[in-house]
Amino acid sequence: MMMLHHIRVTQRDINRGVQGDSFQCPVALAIKRALKAAAVWVREVIIVTKGRSRQTYATPPEVEGFLESFDSAILEFESPRPFSFTLGASQLPGVKQ
After folding, report:
1. Closest Cα to residue 52, out of 96, 22, 21, 17?
2. What mean pLDDT do residues 74-94 have?
3. How buried is 88 (Cβ within 10 angstroms: 0-12 exposed, 13-18 middle, 19+ buried)?
4. What is the DSSP string of the chain?
């Protein structure tokens, strides 16, 4: 059974996020906090590491759009806004857990 996780990317995540850093972007920080994960990597896929477990998810379109905006923004002038998304609907098959 697939567990769905509701993830909120807050203004604090946006403020602390690092542009162009797959481990420290606002989405990775939000997932890490919500799932109490050791590490989260976000790009075309989202990889969540907890202990010896690693789960891989397809990146939702709204996350891809946010990251494109965040990575290309001059943050002082055009920072993207907080948003929410669901993680878990499309865990990728054939990836070791």
Report:
1. 96
2. 79
3. middle
4. -PPPEEEEE-HHHHHH--TT-TTTSHHHHHHHHHHT-SEEEESSEEEEEETTEEEEEEPPHHHHHHHHHHHHS-HHHHPPPPEEEEESTTBPTTS--
- Overall average pLDDT of the 7-18 stretch: 97
Cα-flanking dihedrals φ and ψ of residue 5, to 5°?
-120, 125
Residue 74, burial from CB neighbour count under 10 angstroms (0-12, 13-18, 19+): exposed
